[in-house]
Design brief:
Layout (H helix, E strand, L loop, with lengths): L7 E4 L9 E6 L3 E6 L5 E5 H7 E6 L3
Length: 61
């Protein structure tokens, strides 16, 4: 799937706040995601991210 900095993605498991939409804040070897609902951030390596990614909702233009 094609994703870039600022993309909003849906992950397989939702965040404890109930939202499963995440915004990509940082790309590199590790990927930093920010919850769209509560603003909490998490980091995961690219392999784990691609395994848990369900769908890319929108790309920032």
């Amino acid at each position: 799937m094609k994703y870039e900095l600022g993309s909003v993605v849906i992950m397989k498991k939702s965040h404890p706040c109930g939202e499963n939409l995440w915004k990509i804040v940082r790309l590199g070897v590790d990927i930093k995601l920010e919850c769209v609902n509560c603003g909490r951030t998490i980091m995961m390596d690219r392999m784990e991210f691609e395994r848990k990614l369900k769908k890319v909702v929108e790309n920032e233009k």
